[in-house]
């Protein structure tokens, strides 16, 4: 039998950061429910961080944490906290994270990051994620969402599969399912694929079904983009 | 270490149980100790295909619940040495299987057998998930038509995300494509997807192509795994499949329309 494996390593994860001027329970609840209503599946159990401002006083962190749990979200911690806010957040069991280049492992007792403080071989840096890469085929029924990022799929996207990105989508195999680029509303985003046989393509909410895609580019490499409020397909 | 192979498809009626019986029998014929486990709790069929329906005393659920031991429950095939069947329960439903229970039974089987063939129920619900969860390899049974191909695609997604290997981050399940009910004449007429079409969509290695054959129906009705009918095209195609599963390279047969010879034309084929 091998030795049980145990190691502490610094890693970076994309976290959604909430910026809100209104951190009362009622205010947050309304805002979150509205956001969740737009895309119920995407944020299921998503890890989140709240960005604080110094003037926000007497925040009910424990209450907010419960609210997140009730909405099926996971509140990990807060960022940009003043010393007082920091104490209150830690009392509620939240991690205090620091944004930016100078961020060091925080002193939050509840995070593992603190325990590798001594070695400090890998300083934790918050590098923004710009591209999500999927190496294999995306099968029917699977859904991939590249939040705030471009999406690159090296395989094919099967019929009944969905690929969604806030940025551009590149598919190096055949696109047989649905591709939704610019999901956050950016009309400058595009879809590129090596073989177009899609059920649906959409950019920033405008969409075409496969019926409209038949024609010169069906079964061929294509680039789909927005021009003057309508979708156009061109050569890759 | 025993190899656990799940025979699955997503869609019903494509030949999972027939293939499980044929592959299991083929492995046993090549001298490997094999057990075929029927995961289709509530819709037990494997016993009929294997012709041992009158010998079922205890079942899979009894073993999980500790009401019987494996030795009492396993049915030894009378025709082929090294071949055993673990029948499903007909009176229960899929919820009778628990992950812990299935794991315990598979672990116990693994001590004794070289190959454990899991005959999955159709669908993507708990029963099918249970059948594929512990698998090392998967035979994805597909008919050459679009709905079957799409369901297979769905199951392939499940294999790569919902199995124990996926959850533990181990090497992925080895996937094999088994095309059944293949009719070269209809493919030539464009009425059926070709091997190439299916392979292009599913993009996994081909392990076998079983021609549409009267022999399969005859075999099912008489409770004889089709591999025992070694004169039939389907029986031979399954034996080729088993040989490939064991790592041999075998040319694919029965892919093109057979030209009728002079004698056949005169005497009828």
Task: Explain what this protein looks like in three dimensions.
The complex is a heterodimer of chains A (236) and B (269). With 236 residues, chain A is an alpha/beta fold. Chain A has four helices and 15 strands. Chain A has helices spanning 25-38, 61-70, 83-91, 210-213, and strands at 16-19, 47-51, 74-79, 95-97, 131-134, 143-146, 150-153, 162-165, 169-175, 178-181, 191-196, 200-203, 206-209, 222-227, 230-234. In chain A, the strands form three sheets. A six-stranded mixed β-sheet of chain A has the order 5-7-9-11-14-15, with no helix packed on it. Chain A has a five-stranded mixed β-sheet with strand order 6-8-10-12-13. Residues 101-126 of chain A have low confidence and may be disordered. Chain B is an alpha/beta fold and 269 residues long. Chain B has helices at residues 16-29, 46-49, 60-64, 70-73, 99-112, 126-133, 146-161, 164-168, 184-188, 195-202, 214-222, 233-245, 262-267; strands spanning 3-8, 34-38, 75-76, 83-86, 115-119, 137-142, 174-182, 206-211. In chain B, strands 3-4-2-5-1-6-7-8 form an eight-stranded mixed β-sheet, sandwiched between helices. The longest helix of chain B has 16 residues, at 146-161. The chains are: A alpha/beta (236), B alpha/beta (269). Chain A binds chain B through residues 136-142, 155-156, 158-161, 174, 176, and chain B through 124, 150-151, 153-154, 156-158, 160-161, 200-201, 203.
């Amino acid at each position: 039998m091998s030795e049980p494996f145990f190691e502490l390593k610094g890693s970076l994860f994309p976290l959604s950061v909430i910026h809100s001027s209104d951190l009362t329970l009622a205010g947050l609840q309304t805002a979150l429910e509205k956001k969740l209503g737009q895309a119920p599946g995407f944020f299921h159990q998503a890890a989140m961080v709240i960005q604080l401002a110094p003037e926000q006083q007497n925040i009910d962190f424990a209450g907010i944490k419960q609210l997140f749990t009730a909405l099926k979200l996971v509140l990990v911690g807060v960022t940009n906290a003043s010393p007082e806010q920091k104490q209150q957040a830690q009392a509620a069991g939240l991690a205090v994270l620091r944004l930016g280049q100078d961020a060091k492992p925080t002193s939050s007792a509840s995070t593992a990051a603190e325990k590798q403080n001594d070695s400090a071989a890998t300083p934790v840096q918050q590098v923004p994620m710009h591209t999500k890469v999927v190496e294999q085929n995306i099968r029917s029924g699977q859904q991939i969402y590249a939040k705030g990022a471009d999406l690159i799929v090296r395989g094919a996207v099967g019929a009944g599969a969905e690929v969604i990105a806030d940025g551009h989508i590149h598919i190096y195999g055949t696109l047989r399912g649905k591709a939704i680029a610019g999901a956050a509303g950016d009309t400058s985003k595009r879809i590129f694929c090596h073989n177009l046989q899609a059920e649906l393509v959409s950019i920033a909410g405008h969409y075409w079904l496969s019926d409209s895609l038949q024609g010169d580019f069906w079964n061929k490499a294509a680039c789909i983009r927005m021009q003057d409020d309508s979708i156009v397909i061109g050569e890759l | 270490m025993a190899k656990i192979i799940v025979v699955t498809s997503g869609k019903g009626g494509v030949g999972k149980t027939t293939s499980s019986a044929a592959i299991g029998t083929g492995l046993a014929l090549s001298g490997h100790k094999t057990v075929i486990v029927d995961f289709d709790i509530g819709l037990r069929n494997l016993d009929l295909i294997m012709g041992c329906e009158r010998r079922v005393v205890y079942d899979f659920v009894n073993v999980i619940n500790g009401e019987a031991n494996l030795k009492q429950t396993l049915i030894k095939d009378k025709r082929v040495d090294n071949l055993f069947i673990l029948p499903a329960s007909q009176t229960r439903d899929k919820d009778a299987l628990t992950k812990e229970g299935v794991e315990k039974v598979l672990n116990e089987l693994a001590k004794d057998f070289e190959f454990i063939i899991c005959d999955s129920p159709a669908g993507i619900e708990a029963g099918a998930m249970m059948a594929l969860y512990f698998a090392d390899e998967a035979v994805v049974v597909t008919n050459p038509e679009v709905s079957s191909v799409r369901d297979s695609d769905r199951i392939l997604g499940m294999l790569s995300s919902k199995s124990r290997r996926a959850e533990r981050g181990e090497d992925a399940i080895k996937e094999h494509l088994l095309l059944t009910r293949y009719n070269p004449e209809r493919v030539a007429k464009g009425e059926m997807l070709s091997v190439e079409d299916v392979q292009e969509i599913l993009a996994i290695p081909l392990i076998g192509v079983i021609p549409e054959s009267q022999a399969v129906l005859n075999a099912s009705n008489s409770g004889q795994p089709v591999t025992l009918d070694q004169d039939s095209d389907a029986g031979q195609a399954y034996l080729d499949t088993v040989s490939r599963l064991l790592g041999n390279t075998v040319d694919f047969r029965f892919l093109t329309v057979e030209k009728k010879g002079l004698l056949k034309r005169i005497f009828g084929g």
